Amino acid sequence: MPEEELFKTEESQTRAEIADALVAAAEQIESGSVHLESADTEQEVTVPENPMFEVELERLTDSETGEERYELEYEIRWTQ
Hints:
Number of strands: 4
Pfam families: Amphi-Trp
Order of helices and strands: HEEEE
Protein name: Amphi-Trp domain-containing protein
Largest sheet: 2 strands, antiparallel
InterPro entries: Amphi-Trp_dom
Organism: Natronorubrum aibiense
């Protein structure tokens, strides 16, 4: 199945700003409706009562520089 990206945003933020965004997202998820908005697009989606929830922490090492990068991802999945 081809993937269709409906919304994406990426920007540098402080830990406090990220925590605030996650709290706001948690409140929307709990209500069942999530509104996503950036400078040039917005999306609204209904989250079902029992979706799949995945937490993933990855360490990636740059093969040229040896520099390590971490990614902490929270993913919610469901089918329609």
